[in-house]
């Protein structure tokens, strides 16, 4: 019996050490992600400030997205690190943190989607793009993305329910948020955004590759 108790204690101690090491690794990764995001966004904003008089519409999207990513770089890693300490759904700040995180992700995702569509039309249909797209329209789209992100956060707040298991970790959103909202969030919002994003950039990269192929052929013909 003594051997069994000693063995059990050793297993539990080893598990706790491994868990602590995993948590430290997770926190380190989140800090790195946050620092890289903040640094990258700050560089973009600094470049925009240097070129702030440029009329290019793409700069406005880059700036808006950089601001969104800058906020997300501060918010999301902080929340994830907070959750990594074993915060349960019964914690008073759990649901509020989830709402803030979802709002930041929503805003950033919608801005990325808007920029992807903008770049798609700018490259695929340049003449129509230049004649129809105006700075005012761009600002309207950016504000609509921000409003959509806030609406997503509000919808998350309104979807709150009483947790079935108060001791569940705060990562388990279904304990606090209705399953229907999660399905809608993934099926009707996130998935279409990802499809449009991937489709837009596949088309853009195809055009770029075709242009590079033509340029390479011209260079080879010139050399010959």
TrEMBL record:
InterPro entries cross-referenced by the UniProt entry: GPCR_Rhodpsn, GPCR_Rhodpsn_7TM, TAAR
Keywords: Cell membrane, G-protein coupled receptor, Membrane, Receptor, Transducer, Transmembrane, Transmembrane helix
Membrane protein topology class: Multi-pass membrane protein
Gene3D superfamilies: Rhodopsin 7-helix transmembrane proteins (1.20.1070.10)
CDD domains: 7tm_classA_rhodopsin-like
GO molecular function list: G protein-coupled receptor activity
Transmembrane residue ranges: 26-49, 61-85, 97-117, 138-159, 179-200
Protein name per Swiss-Prot or TrEMBL: CSON005914 protein
Species name: Culicoides sonorensis (Biting midge)
